[in-house]
TrEMBL record:
It comes from Atopomonas hussainii. Coiled coil: none annotated. Pfam families: Aldose_epim. It comes from the Bacteria. The lineage of its organism: Bacteria, Pseudomonadati, Pseudomonadota, Gammaproteobacteria, Pseudomonadales. This is Putative glucose-6-phosphate 1-epimerase. InterPro entries: Aldose_1/G6P_1-epimerase (IPR008183), G6P_1-epimerase (IPR025532), Gal_mutarotase_sf_dom (IPR011013), GH-type_carb-bd (IPR014718). The keyword Isomerase applies.
């Protein structure tokens, strides 16, 4: 069954009102945020300038891949799409007054350039934060990839932990599972224990786990008969997270039942330090495939 209302109507309304004027890009605003609407013969996407956050991605003829809340805070992080957690993941290591998951998702990024590469559109974003510089290269075609490049522009070593914190849309949490992490070791953040995964991971309970695995993630939706395959590079860990049936203030239960988070992370298995001048890349590439049930 698929009882949850899918929250895409606002984006559909924005596309209906937008003036693309022969371009694949149109500017739009919603809930106080500046948005880029992207439309080609192969896909539709929405990107927020705050966070350089891909909020919506839908290849032609397919269901949307990403989930996004319709309840955005007046200020602060938008829950949905692919928030960039950077240059730290979770609470800051020493100063708990700093924002969870770093500055990237609450900052305005600069769009450096837009290029057409074959059938795909490349959007190249940049953010400078003290001596950290991030570039996010977004490739939007029949599939999408996100390449986050961090460079230390200063003279001191800098700690780095990061994640591409994707909210994947599912028909209903009980219909979803992750199948590639069987046997992987993980840190269960809900009880602080280190454990080993037995079989597939189901999302029918609150979940907050850091898996120490470099494998491609594989999300199955048994009702939509869809697999989402998430390849990663430069990533020492994957985070699976869901708040459970009680949902969250900006994702009440009926909406929270429509996503699972499968995140590509780095600097969580081992502390990562960038030396002066050093660069590091974190890449997520997603594609879909039909799910054939036996
Ligand atoms: O509510 P936020 O700040 O977006 O974070 C959501 C979740 O993000 C996950 O990545 C973390 O592992 C969780 O601990 C956290 O609760």
């Amino acid at each position: 069954m698929s009882p949850c209302a899918q929250p895409l109507a606002p984006f559909a309304a924005l596309f209906a009102q937008a003036n693309f004027n022969q371009s694949p890009l149109a500017r739009s605003h919603w809930q106080g945020r500046e948005l880029l609407l992207v439309q080609t013969t192969h896909m539709q996407a929405v990107v927020s300038v705050q966070g350089a956050q891909l909020l919506h991605f839908q290849p032609s003829g397919e269901r949307p891949w990403l989930w996004c809340s319709t309840l955005w805070p007046e200020k602060g992080a938008i829950r949905g799409g692919v928030p960039v957690c950077w240059p730290w993941f979770g609470p800051h290591a020493s100063d708990k007054s700093l924002p969870a998951h770093g500055w990237a998702r609450i900052s305005q990024w600069q769009l450096l350039d837009v290029l057409l590469e074959g059938e795909a559109l490349l959007l190249n974003w940049q953010l400078r934060c003290a001596d950290y510089q991030a570039q996010l290269q977004m490739r939007l075609g029949q599939t999408f990839s996100l390449k986050l490049i961090t460079q230390n522009l200063g003279g001191q070593a800098l700690p780095l932990s990061q994640a591409l914190h994707a909210y994947w849309q599912v028909s209903f949490i009980d219909n979803a599972c992750e199948t590639s992490l069987a046997d992987a070791r993980y840190h269960d953040k809900l009880d602080g224990e280190h454990k080993q995964q037995l079989g597939t991971v189901r999302f029918n309970q609150p979940l907050d786990r850091v898996y120490f695995a470099e494998k491609t993630l594989c999300l199955h939706d048994s009702v939509w008969r869809r697999q989402l395959l998430i390849d990663k590079h430069g990533s020492d860990s994957s985070v699976l997270w869901h708040p459970g049936r009680q949902g969250l203030a900006d994702a009440p239960p009926v909406l929270a039942a429509g996503f699972v988070c499968a995140e590509v992370a780095d600097g969580l298995a081992e502390p990562c330090v960038l030396q002066p001048g050093e660069r590091k890349e974190l890449i997520m590439t997603a594609h879909s495939a039909p799910l054939v049930l036996e």
